Amino acid sequence: MPVAWDTTLVSRIHPESDAFAYFDRSLSGDEPVLIPATAVSEVVWGLARGAREAPRFDRALRWLKDLLGRADVAVLPLTADAAFAAGQLRSLAPVPQSGRRDRRRTKPERRVAWVLDMHVAATAWAFGVPVQTENVSDFTLLSGLLAELYPRAQPLGVLPSPL
Hints:
Elements: E1 4-5, H1 7-10, H2 18-26, E2 33-36, H3 37-51, H4 55-68, E3 73-76, H5 80-92, H6 107-127, E4 131-133, H7 136-149, E5 158-160
Parallel strand pairs: 1-4, 2-3, 4-5
Helix pairs in contact: 3-4, 3-6, 5-6, 5-7, 6-7
């Protein structure tokens, strides 16, 4: 069954990583690896920030761009239905709900990440695939909110990271 990879997994893909080994195994099936465009944007943002200070991040950006261009990788766009659902999610839960505090990010960055998580969740939901993430609690909350908004639609599945 195809799954959409959340940013927490995509950000860990680099040569010789456990995430890349899992990614490579995932490609052995008939389905492409699915990555929401929003997750791509988040990872590129992080790498581009690092590239200003270290050449290895620039190499990582080029490597990721090549990886995303492969025929067995599908970048899922934020469709009109997904954007509509994400906007509704934001109206219901405008600030992060989890009690965890990410001290690496400022409060505004955490809020932006929360909105981007809504986009990832809504994209996976719109394509009818579960999202795989290390952030199960927040995506479970988003899945519940989507179920409230769209009780007749297939609920968003949330799968824990295999890593």
